[in-house]
Amino acid sequence: MKAAPFAYVRPGTVADVVAELSQEGSKVIAGGQSLVPVLAMRLGRPAQLIDINAVRDLNGLALDRGALRVGATVRQRRMQREQIAAGVPLVRLALPWVGHREVRSRGTVCGSIAHADPSAELPAVAACLEATMVLTSQRGTRQVSAADFFTGALSTVAEPDELLSDVVFPVAKPGEGFGFGEFARRHGDFALAGVAVRVRTSEGSVDARLTCFGVSDVPVTVDVSQQLRAALEKTGSDPSRPDLQSALAAHTPGVAAVAVNTGGDSHASPGYRRRLISVLAAREVSRAYVSARLSESEERSR
Amino acid sequence: MTGLARVEDAALLTGQGRFLDDLDPLPGTLVAAVVRSPHAHARIRSVNLEKARRMPGVAAVIGPEEVLATLKPFPLSVKTPHPYYPTATDKTRFVGEPVAVVVASDRYLAEDAAELVEIDYEPLPVVVRTDQALLPDAPLLHDGSDSNVATDREFTFGSVDEAFAEAPHVVTRTYSFPRYSSMPMECYVVVADWRDGPDGPEITAHANFHGPFSMAPVVAGALGIPTSSLRLVVPADIGGSFGIKSGVYPYIALMALASKHAGRPVRWSEDRLEHLLASSAGSDRIMTFEAAVDDDAVISALRVDLIDNVGAYLRPPEPSTLYRCFGNITGAYTIDAVHIRARAVVTNKTPTGLNRGFGGQQLYFGLERLIDDIARERDLDPAEVRRRNLIPAKAFPYATPSGGIYDSGDYERAFELALDNVDYQRLRKEQRVARENGEWMGIGIATVVDPSATNIGYVGLATPVQDRTAKRGKSGSTEHVRVTVDPQGVVGVLLGTVPQGQGHATVARDIVAERLGLPKEQVRPRVEMDTASTPWTISSGSYSSRFSPLLTSALLEAADRIAESIKVAAAVLLEVEAERLELADGMVRVIGDPDRSVAFRHAAGLIHWDPGSLPDGFSARLYEEAAYTPPQSKAASRTDQINSSLCYGFVADVVVVRIDPETLTVKIEDLSTVHDAGTILNKTLLEGQVHGAITQALGGALFEEMTYSDAGQPTAGTFMDYLCPTSAESVFPLTSDHLETPSPLTRLGAKGCGEGSSMSLPVAIANAVADALQREGITVDSLPLHGNVLHELLTTSKGN
C-alpha cells in the first residue's frame, strides 16, 4: 500500500498553482483525506502533486457581500470553530457528521466538494444552499452554481487544469431554517442516506428545499414546499415538531421514491435507503420549519 | 511507574512497545512485496518475472517455479488431495492468493516492481457459497479431487435413533453463521533469513506468530528441514491477534524462500488491504440442528450437521473449527445422545483459521438458537427451557457423550445470577407493555460451556479411526516456564507463552511474588519466545485460553522448586533444617520464630557466590524449568471420543435490545453476563477479557462480515465496508458478574477466560432480535443483524 512515484511541488501563489496545474497529470492536494488513501492503494497515480497549503491567498474565510467565502485550504474544523462561519448554519449542522475530528482537522471544505463523493455531506450542503463554486485556471476564473457543478460520482465540471479556489455559501437570512441528518451503520462513516434541508417562511408562505445524498451519483435536490404545505394544512402553521414530523411522514415516502436512484450495496438496498430518506426527510424538514418560524418571529420582534 | 494495572502498560502507553515492524533484528534486511491474484479462480498459463527482476533496486523475484523447486506442500491435518503451498502454483483459488514475491531495497520499489510481474491467467468458474460447492456439477478447486468436500465424518454417541423415535416432538432448524475476523492493530510481519549450513538450510524467522507451535513442524515440513533448523523468534509485543496471527505461518516459509533467492534477510509487513483480503478469518458455517424433545421440553438427543466453508485450502490447523468444541458439542445441557456429521468444503474464498472463540461462536449459534426455537414451539419461556436442560451442579465432573469431561461448574446458579442481575421477570413485564404499544423490544439468552486449554488431539478425529496409526496418536496441552534468580535475589520468569496483549507478565509476576513471599518489584517476568532457547513443545502458544489453567500450573511447580533451593541455602546461613523454613516478606525465616531470618537475596547470593558451603550433592542452581502436562488430555479414543479441552467454564448472557421502528437499528439496551472461569487470578484482567470478547461478539452480531460477490471478489476489502464496532458503538449498560467454581485439574483452580462472550453473545443478540420481532413472522437464522437485513426480512415477510 505505497503510492506509485509522483513529482511534488509546493508553490506559494495561486498563479504558480494554476501554472503547475496546466501540466498534464497534475492533482491538487490540500488536506489529503481522500487523496492520500487513493494514492496509497494506487487507485490514482497522478504524475505530479501540487501542495497548495503554502498559498496564503487560498486560506481565506471571510464575509463578502452577504456570502461566506471559503478558500481552498480552509479546514473543516476551522469552519466549526470560527464565529464567522456561524452565518451559514447548515454547514455547522453538517460538519459534525463529516468523518471524525481527526479527519476534519486536516480535511478541507473545498476538497470534500471537489472530490464529489456521492455520500459526502458538504456537496449536499452546497447543493441545498445553492452555493457558488469558483474555478480558477490560467485561463481565468469562472463561477459555477452547485446545481451544475456535480456531474456524477467523483466527477464535476471542473477541468483538469482548474482549481476549486473558493466556495461561496449564502449567509442565512431571517425566516430561514435548516435541518441536517444522516444515517450510517457506525458513527463517522459515510452516510447510507442523508438529507440537508433549507426552509424559508415569510408571512405565511413556505419554501422547502431538500437535498438527499448517498442515494444517487450526485446530490439530489427536491422542492418539497408542496409536501410541507400539505402537512401544515393538517397541523396548522405553528405545530410542535413531533406533530409536524408525523404529518410529513405521510408525504416523504413519495419524495424518497423520487430521490433514491442507486443500485444498493450490502449495507443498504434501494428499498432500505428509501425508508431512511423518508424518515430523515420528515425529521429534518420539520426541524427546519420550526427553526424558520422561530427566526421569522425573532426578526419581527426586533 | 505506579498506579497501572499491568506491568506491560507503562511501555505500551509511552510508545516503547517492541513490535516487529519497529525492530530490525537482522542487519541488511531487504523488503518484500507480494504479488496477489486478482482472480478468485484461474489457471496460471505463464509467469514472466524478467521485467521485474531487471528493475534497479530489485534483489530477487520468485514465483511458482521457485516455490515448486524448493518447497513441499504444507503437511495437512487430514489426508486430502488438496496440496497447499504458500503461493499458487498451478491455479489461483482465491482473490489475494500470493503468486509471486518481489524483494527490493524498500517497499515502494518492491511495489513498483510488483507491477512489472506478468502473469497470464485463464479465468475459471468460481464457487463461493457452501451449498453450491456441494453440488455435483460445482467447479472443482483441486484437480486431484473429485469433490470440494475436504473432510466428511460422522459420529454417533448414545442411542440417537431410539431417542428420536420415542420423542413426542422433534425440532429441526437450519442456520448459517457468517465469516468474520479479528482486527489486530498490527498486521502480519515476518523477517526471515535463509542460510545454507553444513547440514542443510538454517532458517531464522522473526514473526508476530503466537502459536500453536504445531505450525512450526508444518513450516519445517514445507521447507524440507528438521523443525530444529527453523529458529522462530517472536517479539514481546505482537500487536494483538485474537487468533488470526496463527495464520502468518505460510509467509514464514515464503519469506525464507525469498531470502534464499535474495541472499539477504527479507522483511514483509502485511498492510491492511492484504490483511482484509488474504490473511484469515473465522470460518462460515451452514448447520442443521435437530432435537428430540419430550413434553416438558427436555432434550434427549441431538443431531448436528455442520458444514464449514474453509476457503480455498484446508489450511492447518483447519478443520479444527469443526473439532475444537467436539467434547462440548452438547453445550451446557444433559443431552446423552448425539449424532454429528462434520464436513468442510473448499471454495474460492480466503482460507480460514483461528478467531477468538474458535468454533464456539459457530456451534452455539446453532445450539442456542435451537433452544429458543424449541421454547417457541413448546410455548415456553426460553429461560425455562434452559433451566430444564442445564447440567445440575451435583453432576460434576460431567461426562458428555462425545468424550468431554466437564471439570467443574454450577450452571444453574450462574444462570440465575445472570437473570437476577437484570431482573428478568421485570424485563418480561416491560416487554409485554412494549409489545402492547407496538414497540420492538427483545430479550435474548445464551448459556454456553466455555472450553479452555485445548487438547490438540482433537485434530486426530478428522481422520477415521482405521487410518489413525496406533501409538502415533496426538494429544496434549502442555505449557512451559523457566524461573531464575540472579545474585541480587531478583527473580526472573521467562514466559514463552507468546501473549497477544493479555497481560501474562502481570499475572506471572503476582503469582510468583506471592508464592516466594517477595515484593512484586522483585519479580521480573520476561516475555520471549525463541525456539532455540525458550522451552516449548508443539502445543505451546497463546490460543484456546491456555495461560490461566496451564502456564500458571507450571509456574507454581517451578517457583516451588526455586523455593526449595533458597531454603537449602538459607538453612546454611541460619544453621537450621531447610524443612523448618518459610518464605515471607522478602525473607526466609524459621517457622514460628520469625526473628531468625535471612533475606531471600542473601540466600540466593549464597548459591551464586559460595556454592562450596552448600550441602554435599546439592545442585547449586537457581534456574528451574517446569512443564505442566494434564493427564486428562488424551488422544482421541478408538471410539472417537475426546476430551477436547482440559477445562470447561461457563457463560450466561442475557441481552436486551430495542429496534428502532424507523431506521431498524438494533440498539443494545442492557447486557447481563456471568462468567465462571474457575479461580479468578486477576479481576481487572478478567474484566478486560470480558469486555473485549463482548466487543468482538458485537462486531460479528451487528457489524462485521467478510462478504464476497458471486464472482469471488471480496466486497468488504477496506474499513469502509468491513465495519468494526468503535467506542461509539460499544457503549451500553453492562453488568458483568462472576462465579468461581475452581477447576480440580489446574494448580490454582483457574480456567481460561479469554473467549467466553465471543461465543455466547452473537447468538444471544440474535435470540433477542428474534424475540423482539416475534410477531412479525420472520425467521432469524443468520448474522449480522442490521437495519438493511431487517428491512429485507420485514418487507419479504409482508410479501412486498
From TrEMBL, chain A:
SMART domains: CO_deh_flav_C. Pfam families: CO_deh_flav_C, FAD_binding_5. The keyword GTP-binding does not apply. Residues 1-174 form the FAD-binding PCMH-type domain. It comes from the Bacteria. Keywords: FAD, Flavoprotein, Oxidoreductase. SUPFAM superfamilies: CO dehydrogenase flavoprotein C-terminal domain-like, FAD-binding/transporter-associated domain-like. This is Carbon monoxide dehydrogenase. It comes from Nocardioides luteus. The lineage of its organism: Bacteria, Bacillati, Actinomycetota, Actinomycetes, Propionibacteriales.
From TrEMBL, chain B:
InterPro entries: Ald_Oxase/Xan_DH_a/b (IPR000674), Ald_Oxase/Xan_DH_a/b_sf (IPR036856), Ald_Oxase/xanthine_DH-like (IPR016208), AldOxase/xan_DH_MoCoBD1 (IPR008274), AldOxase/xan_DH_MoCoBD2 (IPR046867), AldOxase/xan_DH_Mopterin-bd_sf (IPR037165). Keywords: Molybdenum, Oxidoreductase. Pfam families: Ald_Xan_dh_C, MoCoBD_1, MoCoBD_2. Residues 14-125 form the Aldehyde oxidase/xanthine dehydrogenase a/b hammerhead domain. This is Carbon monoxide dehydrogenase. The gene is cutL.
